[in-house]
């Protein structure tokens, strides 16, 4: 066993505690600190595959934040006619008097066609949205909120606003501004890829063969 590595790991752990004074030990925070430190100096951890990359940690925490939002939203929507955040997103896309084609509403909600159609079917069945003929396209229909849909939005919007504040957590105003800028930048990067939905392009991104 290479005890020198263990000794250095212990020394780094002590340095981390001195710099950050954590109330409790969190592996993810320690790894993030190591990676940040590694940008400035070489260390034995830079090529260790057991340590998640900085990109991996960012993706992981974004995913965790979405799961936390889902966790809270289930409690908020429990006594409402809405089933999920996707339902709320669809209604919000039509609120208060917006009329959209089905494909446009699904795209605006950042959903894939199959799952988006399922949500629309559910909302139509519940009477929260309705459809009518498109005035300029005989083959298309426009979706819009019913009075029941508007009432559901008004009932839930206040609680969703409180949830948003809770998801942001203990960030101060400066941190919120910085995070918002970074999230906006990431959204601008991913949105055109999602909207094109070019499977060949997406598979090339991840070096996967296109499935026929």
UniProtKB/TrEMBL annotation:
Please provide an example of a Pfam family that matches this protein in its UniProt record.
HTH_27
The family database entries (InterPro entries) matched by this protein are listed as:
HTH_MarR-typ (IPR000835), WH-like_DNA-bd_sf (IPR036388), WH_DNA-bd_sf (IPR036390)
Q: Which residues form the HTH marR-type domain?
A: 58-188
Q: Which SUPFAM superfamilies match?
A: Winged helix' DNA-binding domain (SSF46785)
Q: Which GO terms describe its molecular function?
A: DNA-binding transcription factor activity
The molecule here is called HTH marR-type domain-containing protein
Taxonomic classification, please?
Bacteria, Pseudomonadati, Bacteroidota, Cytophagia, Cytophagales
């Amino acid at each position: 066993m290479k005890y020198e590595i263990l000794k250095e790991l212990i020394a780094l752990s002590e340095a981390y505690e001195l710099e950050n004074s954590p109330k409790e030990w969190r592996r993810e925070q320690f790894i993030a600190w190591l990676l940040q430190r590694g940008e400035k100096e070489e260390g034995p951890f830079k090529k260790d595959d057991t340590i998640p990359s900085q990109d991996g940690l960012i993706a992981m925490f974004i995913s965790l934040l979405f799961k936390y939002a889902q966790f809270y939203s289930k409690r908020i929507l429990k006594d409402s006619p809405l089933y999920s955040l996707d339902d709320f997103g669809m209604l919000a896309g039509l609120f208060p008097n917006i009329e959209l084609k089905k494909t446009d509403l699904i795209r605006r909600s950042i959903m894939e066609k199959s799952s988006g159609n399922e949500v629309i079917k559910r909302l139509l069945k519940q009477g929260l949205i309705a459809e009518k003929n498109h005035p300029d396209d005989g083959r298309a229909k426009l979706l819009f909120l019913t009075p029941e849909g508007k009432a559901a939005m008004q009932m839930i919007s206040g609680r969703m606003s409180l949830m948003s504040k809770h998801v942001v957590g203990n960030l101060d105003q400066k941190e919120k501004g910085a995070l918002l800028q970074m999230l906006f930048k990431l959204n601008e990067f991913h949105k055109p890829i999602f909207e094109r939905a070019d499977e060949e392009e997406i598979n090339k991104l991840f070096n996967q063969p296109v499935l026929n």
